[in-house]
């Protein structure tokens, strides 16, 4: 494996209503980066925060020339904010991480070391989940195992995989070529391929504020994840159709047998109602699945930009 050098390391940090934690984040990250003695830039993306996040970023910028910030025109969501940051990377390697200290800056040296060894994509995965309920743990565990079954070999996920990743310039350029509107970055970082390595950390509890994910957003996130990487649900309706037809055929033979050989009067009404309701359910589920894909095709063909920038203040490295 060919060793790689870092001239400039860019850190991309999406921030949505994180005013309380930004200063501490900046302090911890710069402490770690200075100890590594590499040139760096911190690209903060203000994703339409309604608190004082932007003011905090301006203060950080005034005090530290390595800071750059992108102020988006409104809240576009974390995926879009990450893309905005990655589009502005000047370095030859980029790290994407959360601004709420859920992703420990102390892992950066390990990631940089793996990059220097020659890896292009370095994923961070948490090994222990402190402060997460058993139910949520079970739910995310079963989500990932279902996802892996659906997605096939090109992308395999593990419980504990994070949007905390280091990308070499080569890997980053590949990610930037993926211009899809519905982004599931965790999957995209794997889908691009290249030599990759996973580094582990112990997940702590959140430092400040609560997670901004509601149950509904988690469901949308899961549907996005599945529809971005799998066509299996679309085949589901065909398989279900075949299965139902098979049982209907057997049932028909049974009824014919009963009428012809046993002379039984067939009770039609309850059977009919049950079958009609069952089939309606099957049809609606299939339509719903197709609808999910059609909706995404609709969003993609509109080809709208993923975000708009209200203000961009570059770091000293780009200015
Ligand atoms: N975030 C963002 N836009 C959003 C929601 C979140 O940029 O609409 C940022 C947030 O500031 C944080 C990261 O994405 O840096 C992760 O957010 P959060 O902690 O809410 O998600 P979780 O860690 O629970 O997945």
Which structural traits does this protein have?
319 residues, alpha/beta, 8-stranded mixed beta sheet, 50% helix, binds uridine-5'-diphosphate
Kindly describe this structure.
This is Glycosyl transferase family 2. The chain has helices at 22-36, 53-63, 78-87, 108-117, 134-151, 169-177, 185-191, 215-229, 232-262, 268-302, and strands at residues 8-15, 39-46, 67-72, 93-96, 121-129, 161-168, 196-203, 309-313. The protein is α/β, with parallel strands linked by helices and 319 residues long. It has an 8-stranded mixed beta sheet with strand order 7-5-6-4-1-2-3-8, with helices on both faces. Helix 5 (134-151) packs parallel to helix 8 (215-229) and helix 9 runs antiparallel to helix 10 (268-302). The chain is elongated and about 90 Å long. It starts with 7 loop residues before the first strand and ends in a 6-residue tail after the last strand. The mean pLDDT is 85. The protein binds uridine-5'-diphosphate. Residues 14-16, 18, 47, 75, 77-78, 81, 98-100, 102, 211-213 line the site of uridine-5'-diphosphate (UDP).
End-to-end separation: 34 Å
Distinct small-molecule ligands in the complex? uridine-5'-diphosphate
Order of helices and strands: EHEHEHEHEHEHHEHHHE
Radius of gyration equals 25 Å
Strand order of the largest sheet: 7-5-6-4-1-2-3-8
Note the main sheet: 8 strands, mixed
Distinct helical segment count: 10
Q: What percent strand?
A: 15-25%
Query: Uncertain spans, ≥5 residues at pLDDT below 50?
Result: none
> How many beta strands in the DSSP annotation?
8
Helix content percent band: 40-55%
Morphology: elongated
Q: Give the mean pLDDT.
A: 85
Structural class: alpha/beta
């Amino acid at each position: 494996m060919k060793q790689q050098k870092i001239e400039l390391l860019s850190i991309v940090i999406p921030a949505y209503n994180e005013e309380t934690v930004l200063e501490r984040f900046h302090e911890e990250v710069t402490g770690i980066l200075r100890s590594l003695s590499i040139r760096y830039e911190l690209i903060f993306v203000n994703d339409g925060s309604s608190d004082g996040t932007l003011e905090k970023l301006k203060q950080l910028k005034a005090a530290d020339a390595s800071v750059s910030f992108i102020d988006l025109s409104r809240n576009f969501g974390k995926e879009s904010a990450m893309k905005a940051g990655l589009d502005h990377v000047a370095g030859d390697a980029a790290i994407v991480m959360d601004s709420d200290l859920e992703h420990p800056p102390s892992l950066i040296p390990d990631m940089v070391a793996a990059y220097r060894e020659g890896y292009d994509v370095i994923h961070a995965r948490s090994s222990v989940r402190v402060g997460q309920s058993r139910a949520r743990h079970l739910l995310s565990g079963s989500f990932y195992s279902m996802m892996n079954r659906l997605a096939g070999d090109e992308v395999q996920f593990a419980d504990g995989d994070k949007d905390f990743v280091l990308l070499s310039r080569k890997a980053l350029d590949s990610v930037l070529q993926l211009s899809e509107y519905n982004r599931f970055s965790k999957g995209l970082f794997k889908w691009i391929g290249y030599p990759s390595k996973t580094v582990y950390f112990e997940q702590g509890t959140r430092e400040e504020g609560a997670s901004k994910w509601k149950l509904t957003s988690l469901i949308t996130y899961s549907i996005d994840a599945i529809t971005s990487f799998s066509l299996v649900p679309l085949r589901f309706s065909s398989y279900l159709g075949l299965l139902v037809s098979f049982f209907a055929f057997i049932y028909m033979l049974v009824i014919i047998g009963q009428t012809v050989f046993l002379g039984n009067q067939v009770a039609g009404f309850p059977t009919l109602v049950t079958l009609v309701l069952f089939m309606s359910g099957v049809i609606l589920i299939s339509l719903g699945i197709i609808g999910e894909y059609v909706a995404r095709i609709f969003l993609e063909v509109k080809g709208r930009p993923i975000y708009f920038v209200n203000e961009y203040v570059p770091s000293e490295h780009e200015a």
